[in-house]
C-alpha cells in the first residue's frame, strides 16, 4: 500500500510537518496524517488522500478563487487550486486539489447556488 512511518524528535517538528503541507514527492502530492492506535493497513476507514478534481464547463461568474474553493469544498477539504487555472487561455476546466475521505462515496457533481441561479456542476477526479 506504500505506507511510511515517520518519527520526530519533538512535538513541534511533528506538528510542523503535519500542518505545513501540502508536500510533494516526484511532483505528486503526498498525504501526511497523525498515526493512531486504531490504524490498520488493511482498512481505509478514517483515511484521507489529496485528489485533484476538475470542474468542466464552469460558468463564467464562478471563475474566481473563492467560488472555485467553495465548490471544491463540496467534494472534500480544499488544499490548493490549479496553477494555470485562472489564466484566460486555460479555461477548459477549473482544477482544485481536495482532501477526500476514503470511506465516503465520491460525488459525480454538486448543486451550486450562484448569481446566475442554481446549476449542477459536474466533478471529474484525476487518476481514479
Automatic annotation (TrEMBL):
It holds the Pfam family DUF4283. Residues 2-41 form the DUF4283 domain. Signal peptide: none annotated. This is DUF4283 domain-containing protein. The lineage of its organism: Eukaryota, Viridiplantae, Streptophyta, Embryophyta, Tracheophyta.
Amino acid at each position: 500500500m506504500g505506507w511510511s512511518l515517520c518519527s520526530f524528535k519533538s512535538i513541534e517538528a511533528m506538528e510542523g510537518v503535519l500542518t505545513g503541507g501540502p508536500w510533494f514527492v516526484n511532483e505528486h502530492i503526498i498525504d501526511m496524517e497523525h498515526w493512531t492506535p486504531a490504524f490498520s493497513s488493511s482498512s481505509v476507514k478514517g483515511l484521507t488522500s489529496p485528489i485533484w478534481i476538475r470542474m468542466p464547463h464552469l460558468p463564467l461568474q464562478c471563475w474566481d478563487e473563492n467560488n472555485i474553493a467553495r465548490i471544491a469544498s463540496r467534494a472534500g477539504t480544499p488544499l490548493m487550486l490549479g496553477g494555470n487555472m485562472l489564466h484566460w487561455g486555460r479555461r477548459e476546466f477549473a482544477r482544485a486539489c481536495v482532501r477526500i475521505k476514503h470511506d465516503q462515496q465520491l460525488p459525480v457533481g454538486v448543486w451550486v447556488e450562484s448569481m446566475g441561479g442554481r446549476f449542477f456542476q459536474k466533478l471529474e477526479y484525476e487518476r481514479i
